[in-house]
Amino acid sequence: MRWGAALAAPRCPVPELSGAWGAEEPPPPALYGAQIVAFPLAGGGGAMAGLGPDSWWKKTLYLTGGALLAAAAFLLRELMAIRKEEELDSKDAIILHQFSRPRNGVPSLSPFCLKMETYLRMADLPYQNYFDGKLSPQGKMPWIEYNHKKVSGTEFIIDFLEEKLGVNLNKHLGPHERAVSRAVTRMVEEHLYWTLAYCQWVENLHETQKMVSLFGPFSDLLKWIFCHLTKGIVKREMYGHGIGRFTEEEMYTLMEKDMRTLAGLLGDKKYIMGQNVSTVDATVFGHLAQAMWTLPGTRPERLIKGELINLAMYCERIRRKFWPEWHHDDDNTLYESEESSEASKIYSPWRDFSFYSRTETFDEEGNSISQTPDTDYTGHSLFDSDVDMDEYRDHEQYK
């Protein structure tokens, strides 16, 4: 009897995935919770008799293959059981559900997950990361739990936190600036996002596959399946959106127009809307960070690190200020004084970093350090470490 193996899910993943893509980050194919089953490909009597007139060595091969498939199914099932959902108490605590950290040191390959976590840091809100890979009831990622209430969709999450916790990064903006901020958000999330997703999951899939974090005896196979399934979903959703009906060159032309628009809007300002950070900065950073650090050798990376250098410095500015533990091996730019550079070398391993609070931080002796949004975890001013456009102009004069 010949045997086959397949993934069986409690519900069809296609409606869930199609509902998750669009304005929010498209989730990867949901492997967690799926059951791997082995099944006979043909009916029959006994094991050998059911294999028909084939020679004995073929029958042995069939049985061995079936046993191996059953063993693989068992091992995968045990591996997935590790991911079983835990009971979390979200009373007076923000639980942020998102995809697991990638292997290249970047916080997330998802622009929307990176946007949401950056926003929480900008708003000085303590939160707990939960890398369970489980989608929200609406099929979205990321999503939060707060006081046992589940909220998905980054815009709705931000509205919810503003209402419940009284935070507002846009309180310094006037009506006109708020309108501009919303228009920029829509351009980035509904247009620029798709061109970056194409570069990440279609054109540059081989490099993206290296960054995906999956562990276990079949991690390479699972990553290959995961990435190629995601590639197909991206292409399908882009075609439904309309932007995927253009040629690759036309899509990149649209991408370059969006990025140049952002560069022109930013100019020599510190942040998109001026000297103070606002919600749109979390959105823009979440997307531009993909071009900066997850798309090596691609057109978006060459553009942001070449012609649109002010966008690159903008990303570095936000990374340095709100992600002090995010370090890079190729980081050869000096932003801090000599005294603070030694202190900045003390940080926790990135993959073990799951809880973050800008309100309460502890030193090596366990004493609480008072922090403000304008100081990093070492207590040094972050305004002094910002990348200034004057530095770039001085650099250009010596070229």
Describe this structure in words.
Helices cover 47% and strands 9% of the residues. It has 399 residues and is an alpha+beta fold. The strands form 3 sheets. The protein has a 5-stranded mixed β-sheet, with helices on one face. Strand 3 (94-97), helix 3 (111-122) and strand 4 form a beta-alpha-beta unit. Helix 3 (111-122) crosses helix 9, helix 9 crosses helix 10 (299-305) and helix 9 (279-293) packs across helix 11.
Number of strands: 9
- Uncertain segments are 8-23, 26-38, 43-48, 81-86, 329-399
User: What is the residue-mean pLDDT, rounded to a whole number?
Assistant: 74
Head-to-tail CA distance between termini: 73 Å
Order of helices and strands: EHEHEHEEEHHHHHHHHHEEEH
SS-derived structural category: alpha+beta
**Using only CA atoms, what is the Rg?**
24 Å
Shape by Cα distribution: globular
Largest sheet geometry: 5 strands, mixed
Give the helix tally.
13
Major sheet strand order? 6-5-3-4-7
Q: What is the beta-strand fraction?
A: 5-15%
> Share of helix among residues?
40-55%
